[in-house]
Amino acid sequence: MKLPEEGALLRIFIGEDDRYDHRPLYEWLVLQAREAGLAGATVVRGIMGYGSSSRRIHTTRLLRLSEDLPVIVEIVDTEERLEAFLDRVADAIQEGLVTLEKARVKIYRGRA
Q1: CA neighbor of 47 nearest in space, from 15, 74, 69, 73
Q2: 71, 28 in Cβ contact below 8 A?
Q3: If 0-12 CB within 10 Å is exposed, 13-18 middle and 19+ buried, where does residue 74 land?
Q4: What DSSP assignment string belongs to 2-46?
Q5: CATH number, position 41
Q6: CA distances (Å), origin 26, targets 60, 61, 72, 104, 107
Q7: 0.70 exceeded by the pTM?
Q8: For a tag site, which of 31, 36, 61, 107 has the least CB within 10 Å?
Q9: pLDDT in tens, 37-49
Q10: Is 84 a domain residue?
Q11: What pLDDT score was predicted for residue 49?
C-alpha cells in the first residue's frame, strides 16, 4: 500500500477498561482499522491521566494503582479514509476524546 505524504493521524483517547462487543475497546478499534484496510494502528498505554467525566487521576504509581489507565489508539492514513472510519466506529466510543490532525508521512515501508 502506498501512503501519500499528506496523511492524517487519528487519535482516540479512551480508558483501558472501556469495552465494546465483549472485548477491550482499543482491541476492537484496531481490528476494525485493519478490516477497513487502514495503513496502520498502534495502542499506547498511558502511565497517568484524567478525562472529562472523571477528574480523578489514574496512575500506575504503587500506592495508587489504577485499573483504568489511559489508552491512546493512533491510526494513520489519509484524512478521507480516517473520517470514514470514524463515522463507522463513533458509536462504540461512549467516553473519551478523538482528534484528527494532519501528518506528513516521511517513510511507510513494510517487509519485502
Answers
A1: 69
A2: no
A3: middle
A4: ---SEEEEEEEEEETT-EETTEEHHHHHHHHHHHTT-SEEEEEE-
A5: 3.30.70.120
A6: 19, 23, 8, 24, 25
A7: yes
A8: 107
A9: 999 999 999 888 8
A10: yes
A11: 81
Stretches where the chain sits below pLDDT 70 are 53-67
Residue 19, number of CB atoms within 10 A of its CB: 14
Is 95 strand, coil or helix?
coil
The boundaries of the domain holding residue 53 are 6-104
In a domain, 13, yes or no: yes
Angle, vertex CA 110, rays to CA 99 and CA 16, nearest 5: 40
Has residue 1 been placed in a domain?
no
Tell me what pLDDT residue 9 has: 98
Domain count, the chain: 1
Residue with cell 499528506: 6
